[in-house]
Write a structure and sequence with these properties.
It contains 12 helices and 14 strands. By secondary structure, the chain is α/β, with parallel strands linked by helices. The chain has 2 domains: 132 residues, HUPs (Rossmann fold, 3-Layer(aba) Sandwich); 180 residues, Argininosuccinate synthetase, chain A, domain 2 (Alpha-Beta Complex). The protein is elongated. The termini are far apart.
Length: 407
């Protein structure tokens, strides 16, 4: 942990809420240094008007706002989508993938401003501290890192103490009743955890969700949507070409009105704690289904199976904060090579929380209807399968013989 003598200028990841507002003042007082507030827009839909005045009144020398929505979608979400990354079978990694782009932007601001340190407000129990700090380590190892929640002189234990500190120091933060859970939103999803959700038996409030209607309240007629892909990336919906961020926004609206993408998961954090999280990821859910549909036509069997075998490892790298690590970059290169022919259109049917693939087409299709047909020979000699099956069964016969002798 950096000492009070070796920091002159620091950039803090700042939201304007209670935690980062208190942290901002505490950092300025403790280190007696200039503190620059940094806010990244990754699609959280939060109002930033008034944020600069609040940051300056709290003690920041300035507020730097970075619009990272397109970079986030293009350079982080889409590569992850090309890998079909899912953590522990359910989680589409919305929070996990946002942290490295936020930290990257923070590092860039720190260098532009000549800062010698960066700070974040992540707690010592969660995953975000790892994601932020591993990104700092990879992109700017020369910067000092301050994590107030792990600092030996940080004395706050909860919200009540922080509210009292804010009031005593005239820190301008909104005075609102505490939510019975915490919420984090970005372009990909909204996540909910803590509070009432810490009981894994308790069903989430239905009015808690922001992006999706309750599936049973969705339209009574299914909706069909066509998604176009080029080299594994979605580029258009229903014939309309869109930028990366705009495409995800539209996918969220379309899927959200059908109640698609809700997940309730008890997951394993990198720090060793099990945590219950509730997520809604409507747009990326249908984008992943469409991606799978085009891959069904265009990927060689062995390439598809090899890539799929690596999905848990890739997802684990993202979840644990190793986005900028050489192993993730190397694996990405292999995945992207496999995606070169993944171009085409997927047709999906959306209805009351469900997603069904009902059509797919591609100029690079490996599907041969003549070979696949039960009604035509199509150049396939069915008798060739006899020797193939005999060879495949040799080891099973040997195993059966040995097992019989052991009885």
């Amino acid at each position: 942990m950096a000492s009070t003598k070796d920091i002159n200028k620091l950039v803090l990841a700042y939201s304007g809420g209670l935690d980062t507002s208190v942290i901002l003042r505490w950092l300025k007082d403790y280190y007696d240094c200039e503190v620059i507030a940094y806010c990244a827009d990754v699609g959280q839909a939060e109002e930033i008007s008034g944020l600069e005045d609040r940051a300056l009144a709290t003690g920041a020398s300035k507020l730097c706002v970075a619009d990272l929505r397109e970079e986030f979608a293009r350079d982080f979400v889409f590569p992850m989508l090309r890998a079909n990354a899912v953590y522990e079978g359910y989680y589409l990694l919305g929070t996990s993938i946002a942290r490295p782009v936020i930290a990257k932007g923070q590092v860039e601001i720190a260098r532009q401003e000549g800062a010698d340190a960066v700070a974040h407000g992540a707690t010592g129990k969660g995953n975000d501290q790892v994601r932020f700090e591993l990104t700092y380590a990879r992109l700017a190892p020369e910067l000092k890192v301050v994590a107030p929640w792990r600092h030996p002189d940080w004395h706050f234990k909860g919200r009540a103490e922080m509210v009292a500190y804010a009031e005593a120091n005239r820190i301008p933060v909104p005075v609102t009743a505490e939510k019975p859970y915490s919420m984090d939103r970005n372009l990909v999803h909204v996540s909910y955890e803590g509070g009432i959700l810490e009981d894994p038996w308790r069903e989430p409030y239905d009015d808690m969700f922001r992006l999706t209607v309750a599936p049973q309240k969705g339209p009574d007629e299914p909706e069909y949507v066509e998604i176009e892909y080029v080299r594994g990336d979605p580029v258009g919906i229903n014939g309309e070409r869109l930028s990366a961020a705009s495409l995800i926004d539209l996918a969220n609206v379309i899927a959200g009105r059908h109640g698609i993408g809700r997940v309730d998961l008890v997951e394993n954090r990198f720090v060793g704690i099990k945590s219950r999280g509730v997520y809604e990821t409507p747009g990326v859910t249908i984008l992943m289904h469409g991606h799978r549909a085009v891959e069904q036509l265009t990927l060689d069997r062995e390439v598809l199976h090899l890539r799929d075998s690596l999905i848990p490892r890739y997802a684990e790298m993202v979840y644990n904060g190793f986005w900028f690590a050489p192993e993730r970059e190397s694996l990405q290169a292999m995945i992207d090579r496999a995606q070169e022919n993944v171009t085409g259109v997927a047709r999906l049917k959306l209805y009351k929380g469900g997603v069904w693939i009902v059509g797919r087409r591609s100029p690079h299709s490996l599907y041969d209807p003549n070979l696949a047909s039960f009604d035509e020979a199509g150049g396939y000699q069915q008798s060739d399968a006899t020797g193939f099956i005999r060879l495949a069964g040799l080891r099973l016969k040997a195993w059966s013989r040995v097992r019989s002798n052991l009885k």
